[in-house]
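Tutorial handout. Part one gives the primary structure; part two gives the three-dimensional structure as tokens.
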Amino acid sequence: MDIGYARVSTGDQHPDLQLAALKAAECVRVFTDTATGAHVRRPELTRCLKALREGDTLTVWKLDRLGRSLRDLIGIL
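Part two.
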């Protein structure tokens, strides 16, 4: 299954571009957080990672939407 993850940093930003890209990538399920990169708690990311099963594909619009830093990305992967 293709699963997507989108994140915007503030409540006044809109994830429309990210969601359109994830839809175009044919993601069956999409998780969206509104949180700054500095926040450790991203509940939808946690749910997203728990939903992944062997053979699934996680799609993000840009890597900076997934991790706050290279170290954070490596930890998630």
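Part three, for discussion. Helices lie at 16-24, 43-51, 63-66, 70-76. The first helix runs from residue 16 to 24.
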